[in-house]
Structure formats: C-alpha cells, structure tokens
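Re: the multi-chain job from yesterday

Posting the exact lines I submitted so nobody has to dig through the queue logs.
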Amino acid sequence: MSKESDKKQKTSSFKHLGVLRKALSKAHTGEIIYKTEREEDGQIIVTTGDLINDDETLHALEKLLTESIANCELITERIDEELENSTPPMVLTRAMNDIHWDAETLEELKKTFAKLPPIDVKMMPLHRYGYSDGLTYLMLYQESLKDEHFTTVKFFNECPAYTTLEQQIKVLVLGYCLGLINPQVSLKGKTKGAASSRRMSMASRILDKIRGM
Amino acid sequence: MAQKDIAKILVTGPFAAGKTTLIRFVSSEQLLSKDVKATDALSRFKAMTTVGLDFGILHVDDDLDVHLFGTPGQSRFNFMWKVLSRGALGTIFLIDSSSQRAIDEGKKMYKYYRGKSDDPIVIGATHRDKEDARDLDALADELGAQDANMIPCDPRNKEDSKMLVLALLEDVMRDEADDELEEEALDDFELM
Ligand SMILES: Nc1nc2c(ncn2[C@@H]2O[C@H](COP(=O)(O)OP(=O)(O)O)[C@@H](O)[C@H]2O)c(=O)[nH]1
Ligand SMILES: [Mg+2]
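And the result, structure tokens for all chains:
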C-alpha cells in the first residue's frame, strides 16, 4: 500500500509524448534525448520524422513510453518543411505492440487524454505498419466520424466492453504521437480560398445532416 | 427564390458491391432510372440511365441538396465517372471483398480513377461476412490501393452506409483545410 502512494507522489506527466509527436509528425532530423525518474538516459535518433527500426531504438522507445520521464527534449538539426512524413515508423508500432502499463499508469493516461479538446481522427491502416490492433484504431476513427464534437472521453465511454483500457490508450498514444489525432479546429478553421471554403461549408453541413439521420 | 446549391457525391465500384443499398440509406428521395426527368442539370445523366445508374437526393437544408450518383460497375463505364466527377466532392468506391471477379474489375476502375483525379476517394470493403472475403491488406494490395482510406463495412447496415459518407466528407474537409492554421492549433494540444 505504502509503495503505491510513494509512486503516486510524482504525478506523471506525459509531455514527452508531445515531443515524440513533434519529432514524428514533422520531418525533423535530430535526436530525442530523455532522462527517466530513475536517472537513466535515453536517446532516439530521428531522421526526417522517421525512426530506425532496430533493437536499440526499440528499447529506447519502450522505456520512453513506459517509464516515468523526468525530462525529454528534441534536439533538431534540421526540418524539411517540404517533406510530409506520412508513414508511421515500424519501430514505434513494434514498441506499442510489446509494452504494457500497470493499472495506475493506465488511469493516469486516461485522465491525461481526457483533458484534450475535441479531436479529429485521421484514418490510417495501422496494421499495415505493423500494429497488431488496427481494429481498435478503426473503432476510434469510426466513433470520431459520428460525432461533431468528438472527444477522447466519448471514445472511452463508447468503446465496447471487449476492448480493454490498455487497447484504447494504446491507439490514442499512437494516434497522438503520429499526428493522426489533432485538435478539431484544424479542420474547420480558415480554408485555402473561396472555392475551398465553399466545399468546406458544404461538406460540413452534409456531415451534420448525416450524423443526425 | 435563389437556386439551391448542389453537392455531388459519386458512389461507384463493381457489380453487386452495395451501391444501390448505400444510396438508398443516405437519400431523402430516390429516383429510379426511368423516373429521371430531362432537366438541364440531369440531362446528361438521363442519357446514361439505360445502363443502370442510381440516383438519390439528400436534402441537407433550405439551400443545399446532395446528389448521389451511383455509376455502373464496369470499367467500360469509367468515362461516366469521369464526366460526373467534375465538381464532385469525392467518390465512395465499394468493392465486394469476396469476389475475385469484382476485385479484378475494381482494380482497373480504381487505377483509372486515381489517374484522373486527386479528389478524395474512400473505399468501402463490403461482403465481409462472406467466407471468401479477403483480409483488408490483401484487398488493398490486389486493388493497388495501399494508401487509400479503406473501411470494412456492410451497406445493408444503415450506420455503416452513413459511416462511409461521413468518412468521405471528413477527407474532403481535411483536403480543404489550411495546413498553416493547423500548426497554431497544434500548440494547444499538449498532454498536461
Ligand atoms: N452479405 C452481404 N450482402 C451485401 C453486402 N452489401 C450488399 N449486399 C447485398 O448484395 C446485393 C447487391 O447490392 P446492391 O446494393 O444492389 O449492389 P450494386 O450492384 O453495387 O448496386 C444486395 O442483395 C445487397 O443486399 C454485404 O456487405 N454483405
Ligand atoms: Mg445497383
């Protein structure tokens, strides 16, 4: 019991997931450097938003995803603005397949994700990039389509009982880190021009209509 | 009275994929081929009705209707899709994932569409309940559509039919969104 409350003291922060997200969703080249609460260092090389698919990177990623992280930063050497990194690094999906969180961490992750504003989810056939639970991601995507103000809280609530909290958290972490999950305003904000905003307006009204059918 | 805006959505794919079924679920009003009046907007369409097009109208609001065109399911009718796709929001491409014949035909169709247009396409993989249904990876490979947005679905289920249209519309919105604005919004997206 006392051990547990010890752990609780250092309320986990998951800001390092944002660092990973930044590194992967733009074409960064550089290094992610972190230190765990247990004073262990880790580094992950990033090349134009991609990661090396080797055991070293795998272990560094697994540690980053499962340990309490004291600090984490992205040292960027270069950003290729033109490049759009559209394929998830295999080593990340490998890491996601392998790792587990204890119940307490899962609850904290759930609480953290629940604070995000309404989200937009982009479809990605994650199983093609080595992720073993593409179905739960598909479920997240499908739920997001049904609801104009879709939030992670709704996802947690709508998920059928046969998916575990860990499965749910994993697809959120994955989607977040890969930049597949974004704040909803990004879709409804300003558009590229008049013709574009006309299409946008039509699409948005039809969406509302069909959601209500 | 001002003219209503009309948004077009195409529904295509090989024979028996579920096009008619889908259009029925998401239309307020449906016209059988033989009912189509030769109005200006539809005159070209009327000329095509002999080959079994579907047509549905969804009334969105006082100012907007959606016209849903189901184009015939053989690659020799690709030209119709090309004509109809001008100005369309995008295409829903349905494919019976249990039929080799459909997949062979679908491959030709899909290749043609991608060569002609960058507009959003969502692929609905249907007949998943059948024993011979390909898994999604194999299907994507066979169609040459590895990077497409492919969604397993059964159009006989209304929610699934809606889902496909919603998926397409989300893709349309994403296409039209200004990427730069996205970056600002991303700053508020930290995990606290
Ligand atoms: N078992 C099964 N039948 C389906 C599915 N989707 C459509 N159908 C059936 O397949 C037949 C052909 O559908 P239809 O909408 O006419 O296809 P179309 O030729 O593309 O217009 C109908 O009997 C539908 O009820 C599916 O996912 N599974
Ligand atoms: Mg039909």
